[in-house]
Amino acid sequence: SLKYLSGLWLIQNGQPEEGLKCLHYALKHTSKEEIKILSSQSISQHALLVNDIAEEVRFLEKAVSPGRFDRRLYLALDEALHKKQDPGARNRLAESVPEAISHRGDIAFRRARLLFDNGQPEKTLSVLVSHKFSQHEGQAYVRRLYVDCLLVNGFSLLAAGNFQEAARNFAKIMEFPENLGSTSHYLGEHSRLARFMLAMIDDALGERKKAESRRQDILSKKETGAYNGAEFSERRKLSFDEFAAIELSAKELACSDFERPEMPVGKDDLAKQENRISKAILDKLLNNEFAKAVGIAEKAVNDYPCSALLRKMSGLAAAMRKIKSVPEALALIADM
Predict the structure, then answer these.
(1) Is the pLDDT of residue 171 over 90?
(2) Does residue 224 surpass a pLDDT of 50?
(3) Contacts for 276-284 with beta carbons within 8 Å, 24 or more apart?
(4) Is the pLDDT score of 27 beyond 80?
(5) What is the value of pTM for the model shown?
(6) Residue 28 CB: number of other CB atoms within 10 A?
């Protein structure tokens, strides 16, 4: 225990290398299970700080004791495995959650996100809409997952030719489900992408003015209706969702005279990679190379199954390929 405490003190006082040596020594030589768990947790926390996902996962898994469920360890390990893009390990981890705490908002959110990462947005929606998140549980990430599900579901319906149901999904993004908690009004980046898709459907229906109005609104800085975003402010950079909707809307309007936002880069290595791949998909869409965009996107989702952004870009590519097949799209709409 002395080595463990020494390790913590050294790390907290600017000597991480020496501190980690002490923690590894404590983990290897102690006979006390609690010290092993605490040492493993501390090493994993340092790995988190230096963005070493594999190391973080390895030591969180060491900290997990068979037969004893620790909710905080479960949440930390699920988050790390999410970053590692390993839904299989998360599926196995989820089996350890006791039924007695399944009602908690943090547990319900992790269950819903896992379903989404397994490619089941409808089941994800079912979990989210049936759970009453408390004010402190219903934060922006819960709302974000809800909207991601509606987008991906809408894209899938559109790609299958069901324009009417797709439009309903996109329109729901402007609503405020009260059960999602105190910040359920947050729409942020997602409403732009939804409005872009509604404009595409309007266009296919021959409602050109309505489509143009939606696109102009997407390029506008002003807040409209339910939309509640920080727009182009320095306080919150645009997400790639917004950037894609803006660029695609500008192309549809043949508009170059607007304040083009800076392309999102990403705050860590994973986000940067997601944005680079998303930019490659977007470039193909802007060039009307829909089949190539779908190909890049499908590979990306296979490589990064826990990336909500890449699932959305994949769905967007497939949906645009369908809706841009004008004769087929018009025939489908005529049957609605």
Answers:
(1) yes
(2) no
(3) 277/304, 277/310, 277/313, 278/240, 278/244, 278/309, 278/310, 278/313, 279/240, 281/313, 281/314, 281/316, 281/317, 282/243, 282/244, 282/247, 282/248, 282/313, 284/317
(4) yes
(5) 0.87
(6) 10
